[in-house]
Write a structure and sequence with these properties.
Largest sheet: 3 strands, antiparallel
Oligomer: single chain
Order of helices and strands: HHEEHEHHHEEH
């Protein structure tokens, strides 16, 4: 009986020591080491790839898309896009927060609909009509055939922070007109913030909408 108690006590002590050591190594030392390496080697990415405006205020992340809408209207209607700014891709794929409706959560997801799905076809037609109407100005008319695919379809995550250079260029005349800026100046903003393929062959050329709108805000402020 005494041997059994002593054996149980030794096992319990060994298990407790292992728990304490592993907690210290895996729960304290390892996370601190990884955090230190990340902060030293990749501080921007480790802190969420934050984007700051000219005053140093954090305005978002370069990895997550965001909308630029007018304040929501009365009656529960969806807010209309603020046409002073470059607009991102549609986000029809975002899920709906039905678990806790007291909080507005950002949910990621794709449409998961086939190319001949009636809902998807209707979304694309409505989005194309809206792009044509929103981006046409008294001196510039957008043609339906000039609307690129990313202007009317959401990305796989629904949170893509980039648009194609074609979609950015399509919005130039509208942004210039709404802000009282020369078209050439806005076109220079787009050209300066167009990113090439990664390593020259991965992905497609793209424009980060948040970075573009930060530069646009600075241009508008300089004009005023």
């Amino acid at each position: 009986m005494n041997n059994s108690v002593r054996r149980t006590g030794r096992l319990f002590g060994a298990g407790l020591r292992a728990l304490l050591v592993l907690t210290l190594v895996c729960g304290v030392l390892y996370p601190l080491a990884v955090t230190a390496v990340a902060q030293l080697a990749f501080p921007g990415r480790a802190n969420g790839s934050e984007v700051r405006d000219g005053s140093g205020r954090v305005v978002g992340s370069s990895l997550v898309g965001q909308r630029y809408d007018l304040p929501a209207a009365d009656g529960g209607q969806a807010p209309a896009p603020d046409l002073r700014w470059f607009q991102p891709r549609p986000s029809n794929g975002l899920g709906v927060n039905s678990v806790n409706t007291r909080y507005s959560l950002v949910l990621s997801g794709a449409t998961n609909r086939s190319g001949d799905n009636e809902d998807l076809i209707r979304w694309v037609r409505e989005a194309k009509a809206a792009v044509v109407a929103d981006n046409s100005t008294p001196s510039y008319r957008v043609r339906p055939e000039d609307v690129p695919a990313d202007a009317v379809t959401s990305s796989g995550s629904g949170l893509d922070p980039h648009i194609s250079p074609e979609y950015a260029r399509l919005q130039i005349h509208r942004v210039a007109w709404r802000n009282g800026l020369p078209v050439a100046a806005v076109a220079e903003l787009v050209a300066a913030r167009t990113e090439s393929r990664t390593l020259g062959f991965l992905g497609e050329p793209r424009v980060n909408v948040l970075a573009l709108n930060v530069a646009l805000r600075e241009l508008v402020a300089a004009k005023d």
